[in-house]
């Protein structure tokens, strides 16, 4: 079932390449190469799930392999060693990894999304991160809990950021700060002004706080800076900064980030269905049942229903991502209305995938409650993923307002 989820990427969507001279045939071969490489990696990831969970991190050799495959440069231009894929094209890659292991999928999603962040950096730091086609892994915490005091030549930065997934394997770490001047927050019409600090991983201290019920292997520890002088070149404006890369990445980034989270949820649900199918195929028979689980028409009906629901979540995500990418190519992607739509879809996808995983767990019977069962881990993982801000159902409000004709506002700050 997991292998069945690894399909050729959709390359039919009309796209304006970053480089007008780029040909589509090399692009398609890169997508196929990545899919084939990840397909080969899936059995190992499945077999190492317990190691990943007990270690509370993705082992370095796994992220090293993903780096060598080019996963963390998929969205970058070829001028910086990137593959110049589109956001719709990377969704299946994320789903494949999350279906194999939820934490690997989560950390990979963060690393892929961080490529988008870096386009807002000053050129000197962007070039430093991506020099010589380097596939550096970045970890980021979006919580605005840092303090960046304006000083001569830059900022004095301090903070303790939570949820820095993959920080132990990252080469660069990013944290969100509120800008202060003369001891007071700098304000705009939308609220406090923020900047994101970007420094090599060795400049940060990692506090191993990640003791969580789900996505346990994601290594989402706290990261700390204390009174660090940071030059302007290492700060960027995520929400209002301009892109160094011409083309679709000049568009607002937040709608794309919502889609990346949806891909992880789809992967966790696909993995749960694969686990359940494996259990049913092992000859298991429930207590007092007259047939094996696999031959039960009740089980077959429920499994068919869950498959339809998973197809629906995938279809919504792909249609939305394709639409947003086309809008980005045309320069019409809206950072308010389209972000609200992205969050609306992400909330629905996470809710639907949570139901899929929960039903898989129930159909698995008493075996599913055991620590050795992958289904109990999937259940914990999908609930952890659903706690992220991008999966919250409160953002239905913004989409509902837009549909009713209210003026679009930023769904993160305008409610």
From TrEMBL:
Residues 35-110 form the Acyl-CoA dehydrogenase/oxidase N-terminal domain. Residues 260-392 form the Acyl-CoA dehydrogenase C-terminal domain. Keywords: Oxidoreductase. Residues 1-24 are annotated as: Disordered. InterPro entries: Acyl-CoA_DH_C, Acyl-CoA_Oxase/DH_mid-dom_sf, AcylCo_DH-like_C, AcylCoA_DH/ox_N, AcylCoA_DH/ox_N_sf, AcylCoA_DH/oxidase_NM_dom_sf. The keyword Coiled coil does not apply. It holds the Pfam family Acyl-CoA_dh_N. The keyword Transmembrane does not apply. It comes from the Bacteria. Transmembrane segments: none annotated. PANTHER family: ACYL-COA DEHYDROGENASE, ISOVALERYL-COA DEHYDROGENASE, MITOCHONDRIAL-RELATED. This is Acyl-CoA dehydrogenase family protein. It comes from Bradyrhizobium diversitatis. The lineage of its organism: Bacteria, Pseudomonadati, Pseudomonadota, Alphaproteobacteria, Hyphomicrobiales.
